[in-house]
Structure formats: structure tokens, C-alpha cells
Amino acid sequence: MQKYAFARRGLRIAAALALTGTLLLTAACGKDKSAENAKPTAPAGPADTIALYRSNCISCHGGGLEGMMGPATDLRSVGSRLTEAQIAAQIANGGERMPALKDRLTAQEIDKLASWLAGLH
To answer: What residues does the Cytochrome c domain cover (predicted)?
Structure first.
């Protein structure tokens, strides 16, 4: 009779451990990863300027201005490195690997982008 009591006790312990493990795994699987998987977004700005950025700049500079092609393409604090006029000239005339956009964008659109980017510090 005692041998059955030990067997039942062992079975209860095993069941409790299995239940605990299942609960821990379930809790871990349900972890919200939306913040981890969220794509970076560009800082707030005028809707038309953000639209210009998305249609002309995002492929190289990234959704959050983080730069997709090396440190030179990181625009997150470009306003602390370049003046608005320098940024406008870079957009218009291009650079080492950056294409000139003066044939695709109007002077007003270039100025809007430059003004917005110059405010990023």
C-alpha cells in the first residue's frame, strides 16, 4: 500500500512540474513583440514633406532616417552637422553616392525637405 502512495506522490509532482512548464512556455509565447518588430518611423513633420521623404529618400535613408547604406546615410541628427543650405545643396546636387534630385523635385520641395531635416538634432 505504501508503494502506491509513493507512486501517486511522484505522479503528482511530475504533473505539477509539467503544468508549471506548460504555463511558463505559454506565457513566453504570448509575449508582445510588436515593439521589437516595429519599423522605425521618421520624426514628425508636415504631411507633404514626409510624403516627399517617403517617395524619394526612404530607400537609402530608411524609415526612421537611420541610414540603410552606412553611416553617411544616417539623417537622424543631420541638422547638427549641416546647415539648411548645405542640406538643400546635397539634395539638389547629390553627392558621392547620392543621386541629384534637382531634376525630380522642384526647388520648393527641396527646400521643404531641407528645412525639415535641418531641424533634426
So the answer is: 40-121
Q: Kindly report, residue by residue over 77-113, the tens digit of the pLDDT.
A: 999 999 999 999 999 999 889 999 999 999 999 999 9
Q: What angle do CA 54, 55, 60 make, to 5 degrees?
A: 70
Round to whole Å and give the CA distance between 91 and 111: 9
State the DSSP code for 100.
P
Q: What pLDDT shows up at residue 44?
A: 82
CA pair distance 5, 3, nearest whole angstrom: 5
Residues 81, 17: Cα–Cα separation, whole Å: 58
